[in-house]
Amino acid sequence: MSSKTETLIKEGPRVVNIGLDSFADNLASLGAPVTRLDWRPPGEGDAELARLVAELADDTEGAGALIREANGVALSRFLAARPMWVGMARAIDVIPGMDDHTILHAGPPVDWDGMCGPIKGAVVGALLYEGWARSEKQAWRLAASGRIRYSPCNDHQAVGPMAGIISPSMPVMVVRNETAGNIAYATMNEGWGRALRFGAYDPPVIRKLKWMEKTLAPALKGAVEQMGGIDVRSMTARALHMGDECHNRDVAATTLLFRDLTLALAGTVRSRSVLASVLDFLAHQEHFFLNVSMAACKAALQAAEGVPNSTMVTVLARNGRELGLRVSALPDRWFAAITGTAEGLFFPGYSAADANPDIGDSAISEAAGIGAFVMATAPAITQVIGGTTETALAATQNMYRITLGENPNYTLPILGFRGGPAGIDVRRVVETGITPLIDTGIAHKDPGHGSIGAGIAKAPLACFNEALRAMADHVRKAVDKGAGL
Amino acid sequence: MISTPGTYAAAEALKALKLGLHTMIFSSDVSLQDEIALKKMARKRGLLVMGPDCGTAILGGYPLAFANVVPRGDVGIVAASGSGLQELSCQLSRHALGVSQAIGTGSRDLSREVGGITMLQGYEALLADENTRLIVLLSKPPHPEVAQDLLHHCTGEGKPLVLCFLGMDAEHVITGERRRVVRTIEQAVQAALALLGKGPSAPPLGLSPELAERAQEARAKLQPAQRHIRGLFSGGTLCSEAQVVLSDLGRAVYSNVPLRPELHVAQQPSAPGDVLLDVGTEEYTVGRPHPMIDFRARRAQITHLADNPNVGVLLLDVILGYGAHADPAGELVPAIQELSERAARVGRHVVTVASVCGTVGDPQGLRPTEQRLLEAGVLLAPSAAQGARLAHAIVS
């Protein structure tokens, strides 16, 4: 007899009950130790997916062992990442694959015809900004002409909020993961309201972008370099203790950043008028940290990409039509599904009927375990959905159910300094039917309007289902080859 | 303990095994292929898979799923039948024997394909269990190769052993000092008593004088044409045991779970005979809970018996314990009364015979249940086998 059977016989069962509650009731009434699993059919009731979840579940041998080991590697590379904002550069000079006829956009791949209103508007704005078109009319024609190559930011080590447009001459922030040396890029945040990232492209929007290119970027470059880089992970950790979730609520982080930058800028910017305009911009910009943070999240997740057999999610991104994800083991594949509209609060004069479906690369924050994942530490964010502290706590607790581990760098005081949920596991999402929550801004569905609110979105399940099926094929091949065994 | 819809049960069991957990799969509707894969994986890892289609177990004194509250004691059981295990444990307790452990295997464990993996693991576990003094293995007759395997491995060396292959041909009965092979639960209890030195080695299995007298009284109320028994069982193994007893008494018994294929109820000749139905099979349970919980199927059939001029006895099992209906007597009595009234209107009397599979410790209570049945005019037998014998005495 095995020792496990001996223990069962000698000590009696400690039961985990899945299914009929009355069986657990009976045992509980007799004082037997019983745990009730809050079970619902995995894969939303798709029996084939339920089997795949079981087949790929962690184990001591076979497929489950390969995945467990791989996820351990991917997660530890992610957690070990130390992203530093080290400087500024022109997109075309640094972003791989960027050229003079390419425009990068948010989310998974989409062609011009398939683009949502805000992305189209932002593309038009970028064409005007680059001077490739002289008028809006010309810009619309060029955008649809087939002469512009559109490509997802995430395929070029970059991320962009909302429409996520990056064109060749835009300045980008350079964030390097000091642990592994990999680099990620993001544009600077333009501020709230009418902004290119929300699909606005009128002259003031373009003028502001030009100012950011000519004045703001050089100033920040000098300051950041003078400081020897800014440790984004450490700043994030502090902001999480100050009520930010560092996606849609960045006021504490931006303030910390502003304080450090101000001291450096005071030393590096010669012109008083330039210094005044830069400080004025930063001081009225609650979200400036967001883009820095997004690049940092991207840099940390890049470190976890390409680990064979790992089911960890390394990208979450939306193009205003579909949400796309990528999985560590399959770094070149997008898994995308139609996404809905965020539930949220709208600026006066707007309503849910005006909202574009969920959009932007900023969901890289949630992929990296901040934003909605750490809502517990930022209950104020739930005001956009009329939520309560309990809403925030429940959101984070649920996210622990779909993640591989906890992030010791990002502790949550309200949960006894427990590390935030880290490393979304495709298997757990499919098993539980719980999909990642995403804090987000809301763009008007038509080009040219801009931002109309903020809210909380839920990722669609279908792309996770598809990713799980692909992972099953991938891991079966590895098992057949005997890799790792 | 897994009681999800069958479609998901194998997946949940696989996850449990990967976590190093023993599993009890109550769900049926798991493919044979999955059962084999799970059991082989479990055996390799020193884990037990009880089921699929495992209705009951008693481990460490705790009843799992459908189980009765029986005293702890010397007898360890491994059973491929849920209701069989319940009847066996209750009958043992009526004879002052307790249960150390009762391990369920699921109904297909002794098929050729599965090869009795769980039963053999269970046997080994009970051999090593210091609280088990005697082992009973219970199932319908296994596939011959599996039976041979069991007889080869389970010799009774180390601990006395009773193998109960319900409904097996009488010629295979073995009566030994260490090991006995029997064909009814009633005989298994007698064998256990004998091997533990607590009873006569070959006790009488007939009706008590008191029951024989009851049978005579009841018989007098029947009309000459009422010569047949209609059994409606919620426990499949109890239905089988009653068939064994009745066919040993020389009766032709038809069933939806027949002892031999030619006795399938679909083969019933136009001249009506005894019919014993297991209403726990799929044809009756589609879209409904098991008849131990949901009495609608049995109630409907009971009242219809009034229209059959040839039926003299309605034979029932009443299963108590955890998992079963909170008030089985309350469910059955109105139907039995309606049967009596409807039969009386056409000048007939139909006798109801029942055996209660339960103990005084069960949540429903053995005594209150029996009392309600007695008040409704039901004749009570002390076991399912005795119930069949009593029914025969009434209509023969």
Q: What are the SSEs and their pairings?
A:
The complex is a heterodimer of chains A (485) and B (396).
Chain A: H1 3-11, E1 15-17, H2 21-29, E2 34-36, H3 47-56, H4 62-80, E3 83-90, H5 91-94, E4 102-105, H6 117-130, H7 136-143, E5 149-152, E6 158-159, E7 171-177, E8 183-187, H8 203-227, E9 230-231, H9 232-240, H10 251-268, H11 272-283, H12 288-302, E10 313-319, E11 322-327, E12 330-338, E13 343-346, E14 359-360, H13 364-367, H14 389-400, E15 403-412, E16 418-424, H15 426-432, E17 437-443, E18 451-458, H16 462-481
Parallel strand pairs in A: 1-2, 4-5, 6-8
Antiparallel strand pairs in A: 3-7, 3-9, 7-8, 10-11, 10-14, 11-12, 13-18, 15-16, 17-18
Helix pairs in contact in A: 3-15, 3-16, 4-16, 6-7, 6-8, 8-10, 9-10, 10-11, 15-16
Chain B: H1 6-18, E1 23-24, H2 32-44, E2 49-50, E3 56-59, E4 62-65, E5 72-79, H3 82-94, E6 99-104, H4 117-128, E7 134-139, H5 144-153, E8 161-165, E9 174-175, E10 179-182, H6 185-195, H7 209-219, E11 228-233, H8 236-248, E12 253-255, E13 274-278, H9 282-285, H10 296-304, E14 311-319, H11 328-345, E15 351-357, H12 366-375, E16 379-381, H13 384-395
Parallel strand pairs in B: 1-2, 5-6, 5-7, 7-8, 8-10, 11-13, 11-14, 12-13, 14-15, 15-16
Antiparallel strand pairs in B: 3-4, 9-10
Description:
The complex is a heterodimer of chains A (485) and B (396). Chain A is of the alpha+beta class. Helix content of chain A is 40%, strand content 20%. Chain A is built from 16 helices and 18 strands. In chain A, the strands form six sheets. Chain A has a five-stranded mixed sheet with strand order 6-8-7-3-9. Chain A has a four-stranded antiparallel sheet with strand order 12-11-10-14. In chain A, a hairpin with a 5-residue loop joins strand 15 and strand 16. In chain A, helix 6 crosses helix 8 and helix 9 packs across helix 10. Chain A is globular and about 80 Å long. In chain A, 54% of the residues are buried. Helices cover 38% and strands 19% of the residues of chain B. Chain B starts with 5 loop residues before the first helix and ends with a helix. Chain B is α/β, with parallel strands linked by helices and 396 residues long. In chain B, the strands form four sheets. Chain B has a six-stranded mixed sheet with strand order 6-5-7-8-10-9, sandwiched between helices. Chain B has a six-stranded parallel sheet with strand order 12-13-11-14-15-16, with helices on both faces. Chain B folds into two domains: 142 residues, Rossmann fold; 187 residues, Rossmann fold. Chains A and B meet through helix 1, strand 1, helix 2 and helix 3 of A and helix 1, strand 4 and helix 4 of B.
